[in-house]
Amino acid sequence: MKYPVLVDCCVRGAAGDIYLHNFKIGKEYSIEELHANILNMCDGLHSLDDISLSVNISVSEIQDFLNIFKNENMLKYNSSPKQEIILRWNNKAPFLREVHIDITGICNLFGRCKHCYGRQ
Predict the structure, then answer these.
(1) Is the pTM of this model over 0.85?
(2) Rounded to whole angstroms, how far apart are CA atoms 113 and 24?
(3) Residue from 82, 55, 77, 79 nearest 66 by CA
């Protein structure tokens, strides 16, 4: 029995914009929701049979798909169930879409807005 585990990767994004993020090399790969569901189950606790039943795809097709990532050293197979720590994909709203970093605290409106913490 094989238990797939993502290596240095996690599934990120929101509906319609899902990607596999390899945080070791900093690359992102756009994927579909079905692929995200398969990869999200690659946590060391789900066997190929478990994944097959969950997504209703044959074990051989799933293994062919996962071997693409194995060949790129982004996935490994454990021989027994062993939970691995993986950042989970959250497909529920609200989604974090942007992060703004205010380095200086200076605003071009001189902090006049009631909601703003910026100062001159």
Answers:
(1) no
(2) 41
(3) 77
- Give the three-class secondary structure for 54: helix
- In residues, how long is the chain? 120
Bridge partners (DSSP) of residue 18 are 13, 31
Gap between the Cα atoms of 75 and 66, Å rounded: 7
Structure tokens at 79: 């021989």
Look at residues 71, 100, 31 and name the one whose alpha carbon lies nearest to residue 10.
31
Token couple for 73: 């050293």
Half-sphere exposure of residue 70: CA atoms within 13 angstroms, side-chain side: 14
CA distances from 37 to 58, 96, 113 (A): 15, 20, 43
pLDDT in tens, 33-57: 899 999 989 988 999 999 999 999 9
Residue 30 neighbours by CB distance under 10 Å: 10
Q: What residues form DSSP beta bridges with 73?
A: none
